Amino acid sequence: MNSKVKVARLSILSNSSLILMKIFVGIFTGSVSIISEAIHSTMDLAAAIIAFFSVKISDKPADKDHPYGHGKVENISGVLEALLIFGASVWIIVEAVKKIMHPEIVGSIGIGFIVMFISALVNHIVSKKIYKIAKQEDSIALEADALHLKADVYTSLGVGIGLLLIWITKLHFLDPIVAIIVAIFILKEAYSLLKTAFEPLLDVKLSDTQINSIKAAIDKHSAVYCDFHDLRTRKSGRTKYIDLHLVFPENMTIKDAHDICDIIENDIEKSLKNTHATIHLEACDKNCSYCKFTKKEKCK
């Protein structure tokens, strides 16, 4: 079992335990903010399950029907997770508004306070572990899962602080207000996740930093080629795809040009992890940038 699947399974186990604890305490205390946290954790569990299956599928090798592999399954899972969070946030706000209109007294505040801080501590530990693997493996599904848990840390702390304020001030209407604040925070998280997960489905280019790294790898060999153009980049799951056209002197043999392309492709793939580069060879037609801006004979 690889590291991605292991941490995805850990997320499922931790979320399941926290959900049971929050639901029990939420019902026992009558706190809508604790119930809202239980709903949030339920969405986290759904996200963790989606992430678990998506990382297993995304690692499958390319096949006849999927020549570019299965990497975009992770992006689809990220979009689904974001939509789940949107739905949960709306539900929390609706329930909180009902509580404002028909206020109820929150009981056993001390137990609720302790549960929220236990939840924050557990999610902090698990999210750090998942985020570390997500960065190592460049997994959007795991990064989304870690982001959920990180948000749960802040929302659990917020609910805990809200319960503490209720205990100090005896103002029980603070409970649904805290729940609404939690929901707004979760909505912001969902939007950020949706944007991150959805962009690769549209084949958005790599970041400027990554593109500059690619250009640097190509420019290292500028003495043996004339020009390059039509550089295109995209990402599928964790795999980055790069293709470009490389212009060579017209008298260079195909073998020599091909060998140079192999070297450049290897350099690009070394500069960025999980990269597949493809170069199209072209012979100089005397219109390349080298011919236009120099008087040297390299292209002849």
UniProtKB/TrEMBL annotation:
<dbReference type="GO" id="GO:0015093">
    <property type="term" value="F:ferrous iron transmembrane transporter activity"/>
</dbReference>
<keyword id="KW-0472">Membrane</keyword>
<dbReference type="InterPro" id="IPR058533">
    <property type="entry name" value="Cation_efflux_TM"/>
</dbReference>
<protein>
    <submittedName>
        <fullName>Cation diffusion facilitator family transporter</fullName>
    </submittedName>
</protein>
<dbReference type="Pfam" id="PF16916">
    <property type="entry name" value="ZT_dimer"/>
</dbReference>
<feature type="transmembrane region" description="Helical">
    <location>
        <begin position="173"/>
        <end position="191"/>
    </location>
</feature>
<dbReference type="GO" id="GO:0015086">
    <property type="term" value="F:cadmium ion transmembrane transporter activity"/>
</dbReference>
<comment type="similarity">
    <text>Belongs to the cation diffusion facilitator (CDF) transporter (TC 2.A.4) family.</text>
</comment>
<dbReference type="GO" id="GO:0006882">
    <property type="term" value="P:intracellular zinc ion homeostasis"/>
</dbReference>
<dbReference type="Pfam" id="PF01545">
    <property type="entry name" value="Cation_efflux"/>
</dbReference>
<keyword id="KW-0813">Transport</keyword>
<feature type="transmembrane region" description="Helical">
    <location>
        <begin position="38"/>
        <end position="55"/>
    </location>
</feature>
<feature type="domain" description="Cation efflux protein transmembrane">
    <location>
        <begin position="10"/>
        <end position="202"/>
    </location>
</feature>
<dbReference type="GO" id="GO:0005886">
    <property type="term" value="C:plasma membrane"/>
</dbReference>
<dbReference type="GO" id="GO:0015341">
    <property type="term" value="F:zinc efflux antiporter activity"/>
</dbReference>
<dbReference type="InterPro" id="IPR050291">
    <property type="entry name" value="CDF_Transporter"/>
</dbReference>
<dbReference type="InterPro" id="IPR036837">
    <property type="entry name" value="Cation_efflux_CTD_sf"/>
</dbReference>
<dbReference type="InterPro" id="IPR002524">
    <property type="entry name" value="Cation_efflux"/>
</dbReference>
<dbReference type="InterPro" id="IPR027470">
    <property type="entry name" value="Cation_efflux_CTD"/>
</dbReference>
<feature type="domain" description="Cation efflux protein cytoplasmic">
    <location>
        <begin position="207"/>
        <end position="284"/>
    </location>
</feature>
<feature type="transmembrane region" description="Helical">
    <location>
        <begin position="76"/>
        <end position="94"/>
    </location>
</feature>
<keyword id="KW-0812">Transmembrane</keyword>
<dbReference type="InterPro" id="IPR027469">
    <property type="entry name" value="Cation_efflux_TMD_sf"/>
</dbReference>
<keyword id="KW-1133">Transmembrane helix</keyword>
<feature type="transmembrane region" description="Helical">
    <location>
        <begin position="12"/>
        <end position="32"/>
    </location>
</feature>
<feature type="transmembrane region" description="Helical">
    <location>
        <begin position="106"/>
        <end position="126"/>
    </location>
</feature>
